[in-house]
Design brief:
By secondary structure, the protein is α/β, with parallel strands linked by helices.
């Protein structure tokens, strides 16, 4: 009990990805995750709203790109693919779409393998890889067998880079990934910022990085620092903006920037 495909899921220990799934209203979470999530919400009540604003941006940006013709998606640091997931959103518009999820956590991988189902005409894969080793990530057989890097790919780095500190060269890592993609590819990103939070609030990156040892690596960035990740690519309107303000859907409930605590943007490679 508590194992999947040989991996100990540690169901009695809170896990950040399952806590995030709980914030989103998913079902891949357990008592320990919900209890820890409750403690986090007591410190930062906006956390659930921020998670859902981030997820809503993923849905909107995926729809925009799929409608524009994208049929290949690479989502790094995806966590648990809470439904509706990226591949469900993309394949609803393009049934032939191919989606690769990458994460460095075997527990997340095990949960995801139990959840991933795609359309018959498309393909969905999950690979265990770390954004801090982009050479290995891009060479992973599961990725190479699913995605053709000679064709445009939509690369998603949503709610990921705030746990990659400057010492590990976050901007350099992203440049490596960008350089491996074909012209016409897209970079999709959300990134935690402290610019909207009141001075008395806990650091957004610290809270978003819930989990043992994660706080030390957390790095909220400013808008100019986040805009640097898109250097050399063409930003789609409205540019780098608070997550809820990137092409909000009609009738969508407005979310204040302070509750989202993140910037979002999409850019295309010339």
């Amino acid at each position: 009990m508590g194992r999947y495909d040989g991996v100990d899921l540690r169901l009695t220990v809170p896990h950040p990805a399952r806590m995030y799934d709980y914030f989103l209203g998913g079902f891949t979470n357990f008592a320990a995750d919900r209890e820890a999530a409750g403690h986090a919400l007591a410190v930062a009540p906006w956390l659930r709203t921020g998670a859902r604003a981030n997820r809503s941006f993923m849905h909107r940006s995926t729809r925009v790109l799929a409608e524009a013709g994208f049929d290949q998606f690479l989502d790094i640091g995806t966590g648990i693919p809470t439904s509706p997931s990226l591949h469900e959103t993309a394949q609803r518009i393009r049934p032939e779409a191919r989606v690769v999820y990458a994460d460095n956590d075997p527990i997340v991988l095990s949960h995801a393998q139990a959840l991933l189902t795609g359309t018959p005409g498309g393909r969905t894969a999950y690979v265990e890889a770390d954004v801090t080793d982009p050479v290995h990530l891009l060479a992973t057989p599961g990725l190479r067998e699913t995605i053709d890097l000679a064709r445009p790919v939509a690369l998603s780095l949503n709610a990921l880079l705030h746990v990659v500190p400057d010492e590990l060269g976050a901007h350099r890592l992203v440049e490596h990934l960008k350089s491996a993609l074909a012209p016409g590819s897209a970079l999709v990103m959300t990134h935690v910022t402290a610019e909207f939070a009141p001075e008395s609030a806990p650091g957004p990156a610290r809270v978003h990085s819930a989990g043992p040892g994660a706080d030390a690596a957390a790095r909220a960035r400013t808008r100019p620092e986040i805009a640097r990740f898109f250097d050399g690519w063409t930003l789609l309107d409205p540019g780098v903006v608070p997550t809820p303000r990137w092409r909000p859907s009609p009738g969508e409930t407005p979310v204040a920037p302070a509750e989202a605590s993140a910037y979002a943007a999409v850019a295309v490679k010339p």
